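ping. complex inputs:
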Amino acid sequence: MSKLNLVIKMQKYVVCNPEKCLGCQICEFACSAVKEGSFDPSLSRIRVVNFEPAGSMAIACLLCDDPPCVAVCPTKALFKGENGVIQVDEGRCNGCKWCFEACKFGAITWIPTRKTVAICDLCDGHPECIELCPFEGALTFLTLEEAAHISRREAIIKLFGK
Amino acid sequence: MFGYMGKILRANLTDQKITEEPLEEDTARKFIGGMGLGAKILFDELKPGIDPLGPRNKLIIAPGVLAGLPFPHKFSMIAKSPLTDIYGEATAAGFFAQELKFAGFDAIIIEGKAEKPVYLWIHDGEAEIRDASHLWGKATREVQRLVREEVKDDRAQVGCIGLAGENLVRFASVLFGFNHAAGRTGLGAVMGSKNLKAIAVRGTLKVKLADEEKVLDICKNSLINKEALKGPYWPNILTKFGSLVDLGSWQETGRLPTMNWRKCTFKGANNLTAENLTATILKRINTCPYCPVACNRVLKAHYPYDVDPDYGGLEYECTAALGSLCMVDNLVGVAKAFELCNKYGMDAMTTGVTIAFAMECYEKGLLTSKDTEGLDLTWGNHKSLVQVAEKIAMREGVGDLLAEGVKRASKKIGHSAEEFAMHVKGLEFPLHDVRGMKAHGLGIATSNRGACHLVVECDDTFMAAGAVPEIGLDERIVSKSPVYVGPEKAKLAKICGDLFALFDSLVVCKWTVYPCGGYKVETIKNVVSAATGWDVTIDELMKTGERIFNICRAFNVREGITRKDDTLPKRFAEPLPEGQYQGETFTPKVLEKMLNWFYEFRGWDKKTGIPTREKLEELDLGYVAKELESLGKLPTTHKRPKK
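pong. complex structure:
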């Protein structure tokens, strides 16, 4: 049991800070280019939502511990891998898109050319979106603890100054 | 054809008919898109002398080959201008361009006039004209939200007019997305005259690229290398401060337009600097699609005015226009006036220059408090600044006169008001003091839009950016002092004019590329080549820019423009009163000298400033020469006919 907890603790997520995200959509370019070999925002697994003037934010798979998408998939095409990533067996996907309904974050993408869904797989540990995001701190690859630590630190700075 | 969708959408609002026509590859290669394509369509389809606010005017919206690529880009709106009665054009940014390409079109042509308010909805190869009576009268950002709801797509991009466009304010603008304005030359009034309240686009089609891998490679590497930010003039400063950072340097070098250009430094400048903005009213920054520069600002303030962050915030030109030019040193007042300009859809630059003109009229008794219905238009009165801006949008009281722009307003007022109406060819002067920048001044005098600062970049910028021999800008040309007068300046103006005409057709954002930004002309060429499959050289691209500059000029010539209209306001004959360039002037005599050199470099007739047949034929514009000749406007050669 403790080994599983350690895996969850060490898991890194693609985290978007809406206070730093400027909605440029370069992450969508990065993802579709590296995963689909093409620039096509509709094929990106990370999607930007603009809610000006308050800001914008990019959302990718949050690696739920108990993923509803995996639970509802009728062909067992989705499963949570050892590294926490939701993996897609494209051969098994029948395009029912029930997982779209299940995911509360809209983090699943439909790839029409291969008739399969696609989900952020963290690019084997080196997310391309983070590589190309030009704005420091907007997109980061962090564990839960690291992300929380940064938030705490920024909160303290806001309250008490540097 | 690669890099383009190969289709143009034509919407006739009178007949309520929408049709499609092909964009030929030959046309695309010759005119690229944006400004170039728009100019060609205007020249081909408009008869000279039509009323810009009548149904025969045509409004073109054209992105270029860069739209649809993950590369910073803009798009262009073109029509005959109701402010200047010549070539009208404005570029805007945001995702509209990409959505239009992905919807399947390289350009939209809007003609005729709708009986009742309408909006256009274009999506994935289809288009419809929809009722907009419930949107008429609403502010710009509200309209955008309502339309997005109606078409049920959060990613739909909407361009719309506000009350100023509906009221046919001659310098009304069109607002796209989150605060990208197609500001100058009154295109909002053209939309208003057609009862067209908004245009919405959304697309999921793909642009076919010749070498997609190469395009993606160039885009990816330029981001990793932060190439755009490696400009010599403003590395990273635009990100930190926005273009308002300019205000500080113009104040420092004694070239900050103040008191309608009577002064060149402003006592209140410290309140209007980017540093002060960042410290007091900046809410957050913003950027354009795929752009790492992030020069956009979002403001929020409460005292002495409530400034709504929904209408974005201040860059240099608008702040100087509404601030130092009017002697207003209250930053929140300037921000409020700017908010109203975006909310009602009016060009903020023109609004500021027009109000400064009104203030000078008020000072000289040419406008009395009776004319202004009690509004005190004393220099620096920010309350009046905000109130007059609103009156202009509503065409109320003195606002109705000022909504005509300084050229028409000054004519109406008479009594020497025309002497300090700061415009060229009817377009209000940009916020630069050309006594301190000679090539820039020549560019403004000869720009195809009228007084436009985006045709020849400031002399100082070229000095900092250095030479680019591939386009003819050698060390000798770029290194001259900003106030030097000589043929080198005219050559600089010619070459930059061609380069920027090319940029305005691709459509490149000038902050990202030479001379202001870090992208080299070479990089742009590589992206274009990889996207289109055309084996373009820099020479071909520069020739294309020259062609575009010339067809715009030809359009203007057909509307009556000649050398006599390539002028600068009289005020610049008076010496700069203070600062680093104290004593400098830009007299008509100096301008005449520079025009002579300029026309020679351009291959235009010296007497009339009209492109010669030889030049037009050299640029594959033989048919343009024929058209001008048939109207008796082509300069005759000086060769005696053979007996």
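The interface with chain A takes residues 69-70, 95, 154, 178, 204, 206, 212-213, 215-216, 219-220, 223-224, 226, 283-292, 294, 298, 309-310, 312 of chain B (CB under 8 Å).
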